[in-house]
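Cross-check.
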Amino acid sequence: MPESSTTVDVCGRTRLPIWIHGFAWGAILLVTLALAGLSRTGHDRNVWEGWRESSELRHHGYAERVYINEVFRTRANTWSNLAFVLVGLYGIAIGRLDRRHPSSDGAGYLVKTPALSLAFGLACCGLGAGSGLFHASLTRFGQQLDVAAMYPPLLVLIAVTLGRWLPCLPRGGHRRSLPTWPIWIAVVVVASVLLFLYKWSMSSFNVLSTLIACVALCAVLDRFRTSRKLDLRWLGWSGTALIAAVICRQLDIAGRFTGPDAWLQGHALWHLLTGLSLGCMYFYHRSEMTIPLGRAALEKQPNQLQI
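Predicted model, tokenized:
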């Protein structure tokens, strides 16, 4: 079977090439070894001295114990951000696969637009780096980067839906229509920069809740496209993981999850589960398959067509 066939339905009826798993997990291993070496080198030293402290350093919002004279001032909450990086590495590798091999006629918009997979992968890697920096340093800049990095992956997911509804801009005459994905990516970049710059002048809870609601609304709008089908199981798994993540986070903030020295922390699970939720939403969009117009009409009005 040719490798290009893996792009038809990468999350269901076909499997990812082995090199994608090797790339993602191999890169995570290298990052882990590098961070472990960095942590060992900076042991018992306040490497963050001179950085402006965040309020979390002195007034802990999470249950995990803070080690001021360590590279990773909170350990589990820092290491768990590798989950976002892993999801991002898969997005980058799959985007590269889509770029190298032509997609089938029935493939969905995301499969046919590798740039959006690459954008999603980079956004998730940025989220892992930003959140990891904050929980390692507990500095004000890290906190700003952490919060602002939560938005780009959601913005990319919204851009995928918008691109599905408006993939091209028509041009007059016999000229080819213009693809809209560069516009959507540009909007994501500009919005992400603005949300970073104005982080302290807006409620992160309101912004994040609004973006999550928009992602959910986009999934609802997808159900009105009878010419396309998406696997709802991925959507259900994403929602379930997100709900579980919120529960773990709130229990951690309330001090009702585990003790401060436990290796399993509620906020660390928030990172793992939200990373899983983002990954499931990505594969939800990749599960899109186009349906011939005749078949779509048959499924929409079966009784009328059977008479």
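The two ends are 41 Å apart (CA to CA). The chain has one domain: 3-165+184-297. Passed to J.P. for a second look.
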